[in-house]
User: Fold this.
Amino acid sequence: MKVFISWSKPESGELARKTKELLQSLDPEIDVFESELDIKAGEDVQAKILQNIQECEKLVLCFTRENQKSPWMLFEAGYARGAKKIVIPLLFDNDPNWHSWIDNPMNIAREISYNNKNFINNLLDAFKVPFTKSNSHKVEKYIQEVENIKDKFRKVDINCEDFVDKLIHNNCFILKNPYFHDKTACFLTGFESFDLLKIITEYFMYTGKYLWIYGRKNMKLLSGNFKLFFDYLEEKSYYGTDMDGIDFRCMFLNPNSDEVNNAHQHQEIFRNELKTCILRAKNIIKDNGQLRKCFRLYDNKRDEIIIRLDNCIIYSRPSFDSNGYPQLLTNTSFEVFSVESPKGQRCVKKYERVWNNAMEFNNSI
Assistant:
């Protein structure tokens, strides 16, 4: 059997080479062509590639997050389709919409997902390799090699990948693609926007454990657009003192604190808006003692904005004008990084310190 492996971009290239090694170790009769290793200096690259697609029985596409719309891979897949070859997309990252764009030749191809629990069986079946203990061990070794490659090219910690992907694929953000630094996704716009809060609450509901919000007014959350979210919290509150295993916390600035005078240029307007938002929270809580424990009031200056969403930290810092008043944060920049990172651990400790010093909700506000 002759197999052609298609790839694009460095991570996919390394995965392609490991895939070639695996297939050839599973069955010496599998002849694998991979352009980086099998085209000699001076050869016509395009002619060699097209010739090998024509001669192959199966074409394997090594898809990652970065190359799923690679023009060259789509060309090779389309060419193979036209030549009546079997095309096998090998997905190394989770993306349910990986083949959803227009005119994608993958719309009729059956994929093999690396993250599927039946990956070993699916891979062996696709190449008609018997399931033996030896072959299983070879694929398990390959899986470890793949994990090493993925970790080498990982832009954010694995705990944050799914959430960052949701942000990147949301068309509401002006800048959809962040830049990455030190396993941190840096977005240049969108913080404290309705769309960000919508993604956060939807991500948390039904499958999330932690959602901690270090807010001031939390005006958008209490705008009436998140009724489904608060219905979900109320449902969880019926399961006893542990909220059915979820940990939701939300903090407001205390309207009776001295810090209110420094929190906004127009103190009275801000204070009234703050009191209104707290009243809305109380109207949602009503006499639900479990929900009441989820909210607190702090007195300190907020010099960092921290949201914990499961194992992700969504983080920003306010900027201050010449009089020391914080500037508007809506649609400003923010970062996403792992709770397990040193910066993430510091943020968790900072949040817990503020929370422990904050005042529980009561009827005096």
